[in-house]
Amino acid sequence: MTIAPVILKHYPRLNDVQREIVGHLDGPLLVIAGPGSGKTHSIVLRALNLLLLEKAQPRQIVLCTFTEKAALEMRDRLAAAARTVGYEGDLSELTVSTIHGLCNHILTQHRHRTDLGHNYETLDELTQLLFIFEHFDEIVGPAENGLFLGRWRTRWTAIEGARAYFDKITEELIEPERLRDATAPFIRAIGEAYLRYERALVEANRTDFAHLQRFVYDLLRDPATADAVTCDLRYILVDEYQDTNYIQEQLLLKLTEKSRNLCVVGDEDQSLYRFRGATVRNILEFPQRVPDARVLKLTTNYRSHRAIVERYDRWMASCDWSNPNGPWFRYDKTIRADTYTCHPEYPAVISIWGRDRRDEATRFADLVAFLKSGGVITDYSQVALLLHSVREEHSGPYLAALEAKGIPAFCPRARAYFGIPAVRDLVACFAVILGWHGDGRGQVAGAVADLARYVDDAIVALARRFAAPHPLAEALRRWAEEIAGLREGETLDLRLADYLYRLLALEPFRSAVRNENTARTLAIFSQLLNVFQTYYHYTVITHRNREALRLHFFNSFLRLLYDGGINEYEDPDQPLPKGHVQVMTIHQAKGLEFPVVVVGSLSNQLSSPKQVDRDLGPFYHRPPFEPASRITLFDRMRLHYVAFSRPQKLLVLTAHEKPKDHFAPIWEGLPQWPYVQKELLAAQRFEARERMPVKKSYSFTGDLKIYETCPRQYQFFREYDFTPSRSAVIFFGLLVHQAIEEIHRIALDGRLDTLDEHRIRELFDRTFRFLALTDVRPIGDAARAAAFEQVMNYFRQNQDVMRRVVQTEVDVSLEKEGYILQGKVDLLLGGDGKLELLDFKTSPRPKDSPELIAAYERQLCTYAHILERRHGRRVDRLLLYWTSEPRKEDALMVLPYDPARVEEAGRHFDEVVRRIQAREFAVTTPPEAAICQECDLRMLCRSENIIIGSD
Q1: Annotated binding residue at 40?
Q2: pLDDT (average), residues 273-294
Q3: Is 205 left (phi over 0), alpha (psi -120 to 50) or beta?
Q4: Same structural domain for residues 90 and 221?
Q5: Is 42 annotated to bind ligand?
Q6: Are residues 18 and 79 in the same domain?
Q7: Is the CB of residue 434 less than 8 Å from the CB of residue 554?
């Protein structure tokens, strides 16, 4: 064990086990970390220790955790610790991400070794369902005897059911050929469907989250590519290891097969994600998987009052975790409170018992009001209510009770998006525009009928407030008539998203978007419209497609969203807003802490193991682990252990029916509210820790360029995250750019000699095919031929340069005082100790455009600023390459290097970010008319007299 002296100097209060973790240098390590034990702090300091002792360079270390938010927080904690100890290395090269993020990072470097093409899309939960819907006939096929794949009666139940099996097959690394040979007809059918699903993904250049990992796993199985992937990976540290699944375990073991430097940290007692495929056995069996692994246990809780820790620790130990066939289903450990912390005497664990659900909720609200009025808490956000589910039927009584007392609550994940007034109005408008009302919707039943009732109520409410001659009513009538009046062969050059931006120029939406939360809420609707347009293949509205579009949008797409529910917008910078009681699921609360935690759901029934595991279990690579008869109890214990370990000062358990029997050891004998008021008032005031927001990243093209074009465009499309109606990206430029990148990747692999015109044509055609699958406007044959000629011309004249390629499509970043500056450099060239930065332009070299050249120079100077601050050395040359020019001497432009300009570019970027963070989005000088004419916001700006003119 070796720890850099500077760490011991600045962090003298590390306990003995934390010191052992920080000082562990080589070999596998398992850390079992109880709640509030400082595990993330220990991981961060261990990574920093490896850097300070020069055991690794930043690029050779990977930190993984479970969520993107946790990864960003870990990144910032590492940067803060580095500043504290004075480490000046380039932390931007150290990977901090989720496991999915790590796989995506690996694929960006090695995608050309896989079946994925440029612009591959990773499907989320919604788009994965829509992808199967889009390819339903190909993947699932027709129903036989009224059932799809022999099991499901409707298309959507088949889509949702098949998705669960597809994910599990990939995550468990089941070979589908084994399923095809099974005796059970359903297993054979799902195996065949899975193969068809995989083929469809490859053809569409898409991947799901499970296959994202599978692509990397396959790279690691191939010795020829495994070395290329792992050659510069020396240490991998993984947090929340109890939430990993089988393929993730195999990935991590393969990534560290040579280095043996895998550190996994977690707590089997907090394993919550079985329903997402995670398995607690990964952490419980790690000592068997890696027999020489060192095992350390962090068991001191620095978060909670001693009485809380003692209660939940005894409760967790009360369950039978024994395993007659092997290691127990829980590590032997006792969690103890920090003995150096003062633990005042007051009832830190209490109960609320209500006569019924409403009375329970009222008593809960009384408690919150009492804590605030008595000064025990200073802000409502110090109280968190944790439930098994926050859907309206579970959270509703609590929210109503708080509202009755005038106490604000924040519950964004209740899937209540369609209950927001602005969204209800928007849906009503689209129903009127498309004619989805009355006879226009035909016969409806089931979930579609539920949506129809919602829409009818929304239309009535809208009509009462905005009847003719209101401009909204007149516009809706006119637009509906335009669509209904289309004749054979006629087309409206309008997408559904275009109507959204038209509506924003009218009341009530024009006023609504002045409220940031409402604007972000409507931005979600724009994103959903884009998903619909993509997966249902509707570009513009025509006479031919209007009927199908209407039915697909409402009967299929909105029905799916309305039935499943969508969460409201959450501000990532303020996930727990001040002045509001936080209402969330126990899963959402994982990793968080609050002075006061109230836990309901003590009488709720939790789900049992899924059918998918029962069906596919015989094909897994490992035999069953936990006995099926005990899984539900284990899951209940782990879920509520997480809940009970969130509070710092006060844990409150609530019920109106007898809690489940396994709660008896923690529930029985608790002092009850309201009979503890005097004791609670005697407690010290509960202070809340300030949560530091993570640093945002800003780039030249994605932020500075957009902001300087139009601050309002930036506000809507970057800050609020509206999705434009149409892509503004030019196909031609992307095609040339990406084909050249493919050539550079082969050059980096040392295989430049394998390239000739035939091979480059293959690369070019493949790039074209994948690009054509995106929403970018396509090009004709003549432009395609011209693009290929540019690529070939570049190849013929620059083979000597390609041997000097250091990196291509380089993601660079630099941590600044209040933000992270990011960029993507087309090409880094080296040799003879020099570093050159090159950017490609696919247009002809401009003759008389000094402003354009100045803009490109500023971009290159910004990248040079990043590289110089990171590497501590000057970029020798800034280069622009105009691929449209046939002669290299005309194509290559060398910009005079001026250190003062580089520094000025950095200062200019700082100033633009300052203005963005100060929310200076007012348009003082309108952009050029051509920019406004192409902008989706032009009608909103005209309605507010920001620009003048008619559409």
Answers
A1: yes
A2: 94
A3: left
A4: yes
A5: no
A6: yes
A7: yes
